[in-house]
Amino acid sequence: MSLFLTPPTPAEYAPFYHTYVRLITGDPLVALREQPQQLHQLLAGLSDEQARFRYAPGKWSIKEKLVHMLDTERVFAYRALRIGRGDTTPLPGYEQDDYVHNSEADARPLADILAEYDAVRTSTLHLFESFPAAAVDRRGTASGQPVSVRALVYMLAGHEAHHLQLLQERYLPALT
């Protein structure tokens, strides 16, 4: 049985993250297990050229979006690790646009990004599944805001759900 069946309260995360938390209505670990299949189905048959597509000027390409999802997953998982292990050191934020720009994602093969995605997700699932019950309610500070381990798993799954939705609604229809 998952330790994460009870959603976090608003006191467990910054208001900005409600957009993501609200997207997860069941067990976030189930969502994290199902999302890789959804992503691979969405991107099946996409060429490297197509994966450099941006639906509007100034928007990230599909490859950049995927690397952003990976970066965010790593950051959220690292925060969960630190907080879940009882580390009370305030954790810094990160500037997503700088990360995306410096990733040079468009120069990478899509297949490599997807293989990395699978490896990161496997690692993330192992981490969240390894937490003892006491770790779920532990709270810390990230980006100057309170956050719990419970909230981080919901934020992570919701962040991914948000980006999968954007791929379905804005990117892929424009490619056909």
Task: Give the helix/strand layout.
Elements: H1 18-21, H2 28-43, H3 62-84, H4 96-103, H5 110-130, H6 133-136, E1 139-142, E2 145-148, H7 149-175
Antiparallel strand pairs: 1-2
CATH class: Mainly Alpha
**Order of H and E elements:** HHHHHHEEH
Q: What percent of residues adopt helix (DSSP H or I)? A: 55-70%
The counted number of beta strands is: 2
Question: Strand order within the widest sheet?
Answer: 1-2
Quaternary structure:
single chain
CATH superfamily: dinb family like domain
Shape: globular
Domains, number: 1
Query: Biggest sheet, open or closed, and with what strands and sense?
Result: 2 strands, antiparallel
Q: Please state roughly what percent of the residues sit in beta strands, choosing from under 5%, 5-15%, 15-25%, 25-35%, 35-45% or over 45%.
A: under 5%
Q: How many angstroms does the end-to-end distance come to?
A: 42 Å
Helical element count? 7
Rg (C-alpha, Å): 16 Å
Structural class estimated from helices and strands:
mainly alpha
Mean pLDDT: 97
The unreliable regions are none
* CATH T-level fold name: Four Helix Bundle (Hemerythrin (Met), subunit A)
